[in-house]
Amino acid sequence: MITVSVDLGERSYPIHIGADLIGRTELFAPHIAGSAVTIVTNTTVEPLYGEKLRAALAPLGKQVSTVVLPDGEAHKNWETLNGVFDALLAAHADRKTTLIALGGGVIGDMTGFAAACYMRGVPFIQVPTTLLSQVDSSVGGKTGINHPLGKNMIGAFYQPLAVVADTAVLRTLPERELAAGIAEVIKTAAIADAPFFDWIEANIGALNGCDGEALAHAIKRCCEIKASVVSADEREGGLRAILNFGHTFGHAIEAGLGYGEWLHGEAVGCGMTMAADLSVRLGHLDDASRKRLVSIVAAARLPIRAPALGETRYIDLMKSDKKAEAGTVKFVLLKRIGEPLMDSAPEDALRATLSASV
Amino acid sequence: MITVSVDLGERSYPIHIGADLIGRTELFAPHIAGSAVTIVTNTTVEPLYGEKLRAALAPLGKQVSTVVLPDGEAHKNWETLNGVFDALLAAHADRKTTLIALGGGVIGDMTGFAAACYMRGVPFIQVPTTLLSQVDSSVGGKTGINHPLGKNMIGAFYQPLAVVADTAVLRTLPERELAAGIAEVIKTAAIADAPFFDWIEANIGALNGCDGEALAHAIKRCCEIKASVVSADEREGGLRAILNFGHTFGHAIEAGLGYGEWLHGEAVGCGMTMAADLSVRLGHLDDASRKRLVSIVAAARLPIRAPALGETRYIDLMKSDKKAEAGTVKFVLLKRIGEPLMDSAPEDALRATLSASV
Question: I want to staple B46 with a disulfide (CB 3.0 to 4.6 A). Which of A73, A248, B50, B60 is the partner?
């Protein structure tokens, strides 16, 4: 087991990474102060790992209940979130009730937001069960739900007490979900760590093949990089924005197609190739580096052609992105592999990228 | 104009108190950094003060929009809140858009929660237009909405950048609303400041008569007391709980009757007499002090008899209160006027209080 520490002063927390961690009582024990625990999970994950987690919690003598939500990004909305509140209130859950998110990014984001809002804040623990959520959404404290007009528009910054990333569960992950996680691994290397990008190129076969050691290294490195960025900028004032590489285009794809059509990681994979294209057009990046990025995205079995939503629709969707300011979209672009920059784009360059990417 | 400072480190903010402050551009100017402002108000307040506030903002050259919500506690729910999000998203409101809450406690709580959640947090300013919100809900950062199973169950701690408490607007306040505000003034004195309680007894006629100077003094003193309590305990770990004097009974009354039937301040007024009754039964308070409290609540034209919900229903409602922990209700009680204590109560004493209060 490897432990990465996220340093946020009094809100610091550990991320434990390794095989078969869900069953280890001692990883949960230090973080459950009250008398009750509510596990929030979904219809896919509950039959796979619900019992294992409850067995790990049993020796602690807490009152454990489970809320099972429908699976998928399409349910990341107020109605589903309200189902969590209904269950907590019906069970008289108090301010010390600990919520445990058992599932992927959608479960993590919704459970975290429920924890942030229920009685104005209760403790929570993340048990991410997808590669994407292990490398990405379990670090950073971003929680929230979607709105019909935009992804993650309603939410809070709220930190878990601990993250337990069990690599053994990735063996039950569908191939598309694994690839979506690898997209965030590529993203992290692309914006922050050129040698890690080289390592991914050399190990993409092992990652695609769900090799435990390769995955553990990738998760650890992503968590370390993201933790250092988030520690420096918890509330996304500046630096943290670089983590959104590929996301402005990616969010537009997700919103334009309707949430759940493409996986978040698939949209980010394609979005990175679009951001690289724009970087070249604006003179920031050389074309050889763009091609390396496109190749590794393709090698990870991720889409490299964007859906044909129409240029104007893309632009409208990007203008309503959270990162837009007074209608101006700031893109995360690349100077070279491992080095990002933020820039806005003239509409003709943007349209050229959109036209070239479809 | 008097200014009270709420000291919360980097989240510190000023409360300006005085007549005709809504029209003063210079009170808003330092707190609006972005290019857009959205005023959130209701159907009652908009025709009275909407234009005045927009005129004060006009010289700042910001893009100003207004969202008008239905009036009343019955609308303090997700559906209404979502109306604010819809309007913000439709207007492409960005992360620097400032929300201004123009209205009473319901508007303040909902606007604050909308500001806390929209894109995970945008700036907001409070312009409370009821006595209750001027003395109470504009200090402390508590924001939120109701759930059918409990009041303020979904929310966040989120601080405004400034509060502008205009005493001139209180002249248009209905008598019931004024009395509901005086309930919180009495509460604040009862838990923290015996000389202030004496002052209220001597000046209750002036307060009932909406005397500007008396009201300004009462607002200032309440804000000072609440600010000092909140500064010491921003997230309600301990001390801050004393501000809930009268609220455990009061929330049960509001939830039991259905939100909006009694005003919050009316329920707190009656709830304080119930908490005082329980304090006497548990041997903490002498009966003469209880009688002083009942007299001043009655003199403020507030109810001193509780609605007949049934004892068991009262107890169930109190057990699902946020302040309950593992089913045990901690009451804020009085040792003497100006000095609170926290205690749980045996069920027979609680039933005796409920029976004596109806």
Answer: B50
Q: Which residues contact B21 (CB under 8 A, 6 or more apart)?
A: B1, B27, B164, B165, B166, B168
| Alpha helices (runs of H) in chain A, residue ranges in sequence order | 25-28, 45, 51-57, 78-90, 105-117, 131-132, 175-192, 194-208, 212-232, 247-257, 264-281, 287-299, 311-319, 347-357
Q: CA-to-CA distance for A251 and A265, rounded, in angstroms?
A: 10
Q: How far is B7 from chain A (nearest CA, A)?
A: 20
Looking at residue A112, the DSSP 8-state letter turns out to be H
Structure tokens belonging to residue A66 = 């489970």
Pairs across A and B, CB distance < 8 A: 103
Which residue in A has a C-alpha nearest to residue B37's C-alpha?
Answer: A326
Contact residues on chain A for B142, CB-CB shorter than 8 A: 120
Hey, is A51 helix, strand or coil? helix
Single-letter amino acid, residue A96:
K
Residue B311 shares a structural domain with residue B162: no
Domain assignment present for residue B178? The answer is no
The residue of chain B nearest to residue A113, with distances taken between CA atoms, is B117
A330 to A36, A232, A268, B89, B189: CA distances (angstroms): 44, 20, 16, 18, 52
Whether residue A116 lies within 8 A of chain B, CB to CB, comes out as yes
Whether residue A226 lies in the annotated active site: yes
Same domain as A306, residue A184: yes
The Cα A94–Cα A116 span in angstroms is 13
The pLDDT value given to residue B62: 96
Residue A245 token pair: 């590489």
Please give the Cα distance from B180 to A90 (Å, whole number). Answer: 30
For residue B324, give the nearest of A94, A153, A325 by CB distance. Answer: A94
State which residue of chain A sits closest to B156, comparing Cα positions: A120
Instruction: List the CATH number of the domain containing B84.
Output: 3.40.50.1970
Q: Do A34 and B326 touch (CB under 8 A)?
A: yes
Q: What is the DSSP letter of B253?
A: H
Q: Using the beta-carbon criterion (under 8 Å), do A327 and B150 form an inter-chain contact?
A: no
Residues B109 and B208 in one domain: no
Distance, in angstroms, between A156 CA and closest chain B CA? 4
Instruction: Based on the residue annotation, tell me whether B264 is a catalytic residue of this protein.
Output: yes
Question: By the 8 A CB rule, do B128 and B165 touch?
Answer: yes
What is the domain extent for residue B230? 183-357
Contacts of B149 in chain A (CB under 8 A): 86, 89-90
* Together in a domain, A115 and A223: no
Measured between CA atoms, the residue of chain A closest to residue B149 is A89
Q: Tell me whether residues A119 and B90 touch, CB distance under 8 A.
A: no
Which of B147, B172, B197 delimits the end of a domain?
B172
Tell me: do B237 and B150 sit in the same domain: no
| Domain termination site, one of A126, A145, A171 | A171
The verdict on whether A244 is a catalytic residue reads yes
**Chain A residues within an 8 Å CB radius of B34:** 325-326
Min mean pLDDT across A110-124, B113-127, B146-160 is at B146-160
Residue A231 binned pLDDT confidence (cut-offs 50, 70, 90)? confident
Split into its structural domains, chain A has a count of: 2
Which pTM value belongs to this model? Answer: 0.85
Question: Which of the following is catalytic: B54, B201, B208, B236?
Answer: B236
If asked whether residues B166 and B235 sit together in one domain, one would say no
Instruction: For residue range B176-219, list pLDDT tens digits in order.
Output: 999 999 999 999 999 999 999 999 999 999 999 999 889 999 99
Check: CB of residue B274 under 8 Å from CB of residue B353.
yes
